[in-house]
Specification:
single chain, 446 residues, alpha+beta, Pnp Oxidase, Chain A, UbiD C-terminal domain-like, 2 domains, 5-stranded mixed beta sheet, 11 helices, 22% helix, globular, binds flavin mononucleotide, binds manganese (II) ion
Amino acid sequence: MTQIHNLRNYLDVLEANGRLARIEKPLSLEHELADVAAMLARTGGPAPLFTNVEGSAWPIFANAVTDQKTAALALGCSEDAIIPVMERVLDPVNGVPPERAESAPWQANVASGKEADATMLPLPIHSRGDGGAFVTGGVIFSKDPVSGRGNLSYNRMLRMGPRLFGFNVNEWRHVGQFMASRPDPEEPFAIAIAFGLDPAIMIAAGVKTEEDELTIAGAIRGAGVRVTSGITVDVDIPTGAEVVLEGLVHPAKRMPEGPLAEFHGYHGELWPSPTFEVTAICWRDDPIFQTIIPGWYEHIYIGNVLPREPLLRRFVRHLAPDANVHIPPYANGFLAIIQIERDNPGQPKNLAMAAMTAHINIRNVVVVDQDIDMYDPAEIQWALTNRVDWTQDVFIVPDAQGHEMDPVAHERGVGPKLGVDATYKRERREYGERVSYPMIDLSKYM
Ligand SMILES: Cc1cc2nc3c(=O)[nH]c(=O)nc-3n(C[C@H](O)[C@H](O)[C@H](O)COP(=O)(O)O)c2cc1C
Ligand SMILES: [Mn+2]
């Protein structure tokens, strides 16, 4: 397995595994690019590298991590090992700190001050409900003003002008806390946004932890991520980045920003967000730009699936050591699937209760048997249809705590949680084994 350390050799790995599609036909940044990328993600297709985008001098990559296959390639492991690898790298004991470098390829081209013009960045207008062109696939690099530690996050940024963006940050995010912790919370705050990254850094940026998230990327790769300081901001930025946007967040200069396709599958609202003033745009020669399709598979995989499955599995395995778990991306992080070797008829409900308390986002839990492919939505539907008596295999907990943005929850995230025992109840009715045709290699026949 190639040791990945930047976007370019990740593209090589995707290509070698038949998971990269070079899209050479001309297409528009307005909806068309997102439509194609979204379609590929929905159908389990390869990740697109768009090489002929109208109005873009640069190729654009999307769908770095959208499913089990790409998650395994990005993490350099087998699909079975995704959760154990994430469990290991999320443990701060295994963190590997970044290493300093003197320079980076992205310092080759710098436009600063009045020369910087962010309209050169090929930012797509993704969903038809979006309020404009947003940064969605750039990782925000910042620094704790008190401890000096680095921080990675995603913050959507609406482009409002050549040097002006909206900067969406919920108050409980680290960037928000960093700004508020200063003697003058309203002072401008320096950050950098990097595009075109090793997917280990993309995965790490979706994690909530009190450590520098770059130590997680280092743990994934078994080597410190090489970083260097920005040209106009004192923030550590990976040397492997393709494009870097530097500037200042103005916490007190707020402007309405949004809406954008959200993780929950609707469009959010306009938000009075801080603004961001561009101080420099830097790029390596012939860079590759990158985006994340908002409200779609990669957004969910990085934000809700990979960082959450390890703790979910620990909660469930406390009761059933052989259980498998998955948070399917099509259900926006609100559904957990638990797969077990059924023993006691009451056990599935206990497991559902454990899963509900592992993360507040988890609202619905479905427990299935080993003969159900837990990664296939049609298999889950089959179990729900043929193994659930809805008068007795289901329980609802009203008014539990869920996520504030859960479309089913009321204010403050209070809402129901649902447990479904979709296992085979042979004690009720014995039908023998399920019809099954094995998976075969079609290339032998076609
Ligand atoms: C694609 C993507 C987009 C996101 N957009 C935002 C956003 O606009 N505002 C926000 O506050 N959080 C957003 N998040 C969530 C945070 O970036 C994420 O939870 C991160 O871990 C927060 O980092 P922190 O714990 O260092 O604050 C987004 C997450 C993903 C995966
Ligand atoms: Mn953080």
